[in-house]
Description:
2 domains, five-stranded mixed sheet, globular, Fusion Protein Consisting Of Minor Coat Protein, Glycine Rich Linker, Tola, And A His Tag, Chain: A, Domain 2, Outer Surface Protein A, domain 3, disordered N terminus, mainly beta, 15-stranded antiparallel sheet
Amino acid sequence: xxxxxxxxxxxxxxxxxxxxxxxxxxxxxxxxxxxxxxxxxxxxxxxxxxxxxxxxxxxxxxxxxxxxxxxxxxxxxxxxxxxxxxxxxxxxxxxxxxxxxxxxxxxxxxxxxxxxxxxxxxxxxxxxxxxxxxxxxxxxxxxxxxxxxxxxxxxxxxxxxxxxxxxxxxxxxxxxxxxxxxxxxxxxxxxxxxxxxxxxxxxxxxxxxxxxxxxxxxxxxxxxxxxxxxxxxxxxxxxxxxxxxxxxxxxxxxxxxxxxxxxxxxxxxxxxxxxxxxxxxxxxxxxxx
Length: 289
């Protein structure tokens, strides 16, 4: 995982970077009349025991998601979370007080684990693994507070080692080995690359400097400090799953999220020459002069 610190100066800010008959059923439809709008996404909500279950269906009325809430207003995720593709579970996890917790597993079309990761309070904390279609480990390692720590390995599909890196407690690489399929030393770029902003990170700093505004409510209350965020750069370069890890003021957090949502597409990470989704961390530091 890459961590980025950003510092940009302005007059006001410094940016550092299964239902029973008695269950309650509510059906929502967005995008048109139920059953008529091709692009409509339908939500069915029912109460089961002490929780509320919201199931999401696409325009063809195929189940795509199931979420568990503890409140009728569906604001507090608490319990099992499932995503579906072609009728099969593609992602399974658990929320506690609106934060990812415990083991999260994604599955391939054959219902075999594709990736496993462990969360604690929305932060990656614990063992990580990604698998080849034959079930062999592709990538293994460990996260501590959203940062890579300890030994990380990447293997070829036949099990031969491709990469080994050792990270210290500050997520700095202290030792590394990169090998081709024949076991000969190669550069890291021949094995894997990190996601990056088009034109380099200086261009990203310029984008931030142009886009960010100090929120009036935060300025009026003299709020300042660092907003720590995590997001994923998809295999097509889209910024997705933006999360605020911590923030001194809700207005500053909202402004940081808004700007990231407006970001142009990135150059995605690669593994063995193919684009992949990859996590990324940044912080944006707001400071009143």
